[in-house]
Design a protein that fits this description.
Chain lengths: 227, 227
């Protein structure tokens, strides 16, 4: 890619940056394409709040403006779940297990996208990007492609200037995302994945299990420390 | 309506209750239909925050559980506007005027609906209702019917159990809403409309102007006090 001879203006993009590996690669990917970027992360009372530190460091490393929006005022609407209610224990093992449904914050993706779109509008940006991928789980209804399509339609209509929703990894699995991040030199050592939010990654929760499988699939060494 | 012989279960509905006249009538309307209800209001740093007191009083009068969700953590995403930024003066006169665009909070409806839907999901409710009506303004893109249709589609897909978006006033103008509220004995004296948020309604802002026209059209005396 030769940025010097690029003549068409790139879309300005607000990136939803969780601090995990998918959105870290998304940031690298859009930066490599030359898009002017801003990044937004959300504090919704998650137990693994240290992912927000990771998000801030990833944005700094990429030279991108970063804002943490605080959704904790919505906690009374969420009900009991293990991500935002510390009295509910984090289940271990694979996402496929029934117990993983406890990790759901209701309607999280719609709330985050709606908020990121608001920032795109007030910033006179063109698009919002997020790291939806083909491996998103059957237990997360708001990761379904048909949900994303409906949100895309709403996003094009919520303001006079359409805001485009970008999901460049929608055909990728997590192993392919790791491989792309490896090529783009994504600083994986800055990312945070574990739902437990301890000093090191626990290596046991559904989120850690998936991360380890993705790095193994890509044949890339995961630089983060595990318990 | 005879509730005693009602045999089909009514949908349980979360009502988006601003504290203004439209949502007040919406609450009366759904209560009269026998729906189990909860009401949610949003603090997004609006200048006319006293509408939240009106919302609480309307919910109490209707015997409905009420929660105020706090969206002020999103203020950094909104940019400058007269509703949430006290340094921007409230424009006077009709909504049709260009200056009224200053009253826009970007993507407000998507954010509020997304949040209300989250509460419907965690409450195992069936639907979210809001007071969209035919008079919603050309300056509010997120009041367009096609936007509402896209949000309805997203709402049916954001969880395994579909959440229905109800807009029973979509064919009504504000005069018709006042007439219905008059029939249903909606306590209009508890509502708050003015964007200025003073002791009494200013009678000059776009919101007051519209309210006065609606009551005049319906031939109903507005019980609130004006400056």
């Amino acid at each position: 890619m030769n940025q010097e001879v690029e003549s068409t203006p790139r879309e300005k993009v607000v990136v939803v940056l969780s601090g995990g590996m998918d959105s870290a690669v998304l940031l690298s990917h859009l930066a490599a394409q030359g898009h002017p970027l801003k990044a937004v992360s959300f504090n919704y009372g998650q137990r693994h709040v240290r992912e927000l530190d990771s998000a801030a460091r990833l944005a700094t490393a990429a030279g991108v403006e970063h804002t943490i929006a605080d959704l904790r005022g919505l906690t009374p609407l969420f009900g009991a779940n293990s991500l935002s209610d510390l009295s509910v224990p984090v289940p271990e093992g694979h996402y496929a297990e029934e117990s993983m449904k406890l990790t759901i914050v209701p309607n999280r993706n719609m709330i985050m996208l709606a908020s990121a779109i608001a920032w795109a509008i007030s910033s006179q940006f063109d698009a919002v990007a997020y790291g939806a991928h083909s491996g998103d789980h059957a237990i997360y209804p708001d990761c379904r492609p048909e949900f994303a399509d409906a949100m895309s339609a709403a996003s094009l209509l919520c303001d006079w200037k359409p805001i485009r929703l970008m999901r460049p990894f929608v055909q990728f699995d997590k192993g392919q995302i790791v491989a792309l991040g490896h090529d783009l030199k994504t600083p994986f050592e800055l990312t945070w994945t574990c739902y437990q939010g301890g000093e090191k990654h626990c290596g046991k929760c559904g989120s850690c299990t998936e991360r380890q499988e993705a790095f193994a699939q890509a044949g890339v060494v995961d630089p983060v420390a595990y318990v």
